[in-house]
Write the structure tokens for this entry.
Amino acid sequence: MPLLVTGSIGIDTVKTPHGCSENCIGGSAIYFTMAASFFTHVRFIGVVGSDCPFNIREIFAGKDVDLRGLEIRRTSKTFRWAGTYMETMDDRVTDHMELNVLAEHPPIVPKAFADSRFVFLANTAPRLQIELLSQIKSPIFVAADTMDCWIRDYTADLSELMTKIDCLIINADEASLLARQLNLVRAAEQILTMGPSIVIIKKGESGSLMCLKDGSKFVLPAYPTTEVVDPTGAGDSFAGGLMGYLAHARKTDFDMLKTAVAYGTVVASFTIAGFSLDGLKKITRQDIDNRLEMLRKFTSF
Ligand code: AMP
């Protein structure tokens, strides 16, 4: 089943203890789409400005991605983001951010995409997430991600978004910020009162925690790997693997959700092995499935 995504397309500059990658392709929708396209057909919606140095069509050439929702806004500038990772790689600071197109009106959903049933609202302004979702006729499963800057400065929009989604996939620090609660189980329970029936908290190297409104819980560690070059996009590709698997299966019951979290975990472990999309570009679906089997072995006792 097709999976619709909107989010940011970024010109990123990333510094890690392994080096620096300047003006590389990034953005939440880009990482998500690359990851999800291993599992299902992806309908991509996003905007860049006339300064965008990347050929997005070339980036997704040969992938199962429909780019009719890609808009090049001649009068605008592309979203830019720069971040630095500390020695542990789990801590990141944002050095610079220019919202540019993300502060403007939302992209138009092509008519052919309006019947999408699975929708992911990757990190972008909550107002854009809401307005994009309003153009989809009858979605059956809507998940979203958000970030510190939207939680701090766009509280009303974000509260509205929370009432319209089934699942929130969010970083641990941001879950604590949103719920005003340091204990992550309590934070998840607090977020569940805001609207979604599923909350998935990403904890970087420590794995993830999924909590459902009915009290069900699932925890999984990260895939143990020594190849950690650049964690940028790990969260977006975790969501891409997870949502791609669910959309392909057309099911969202608890067992499916657990396997989806495992696929997300594995795809993220490939993303962090290189800067930008390098880690994801060199793998196949078979590599993902092989690593999933290893993760199963590592976590069963
Ligand atoms: P992640 O490491 O999964 O949190 O994703 C990092 C990606 O998100 C980078 O490629 C950035 O371009 C993009 N990004 C960073 N900040 C934001 C933001 N506030 N809104 C949307 N996308 C962002």
Q: What stands out?
A: DSSP finds eleven helices and 13 strands in the chain. Residues 3-146+229-299 form a domain with the UDP-N-acetylmuramoyl-L-alanine:D-glutamate ligase fold (CATH 3.40.1190.20).
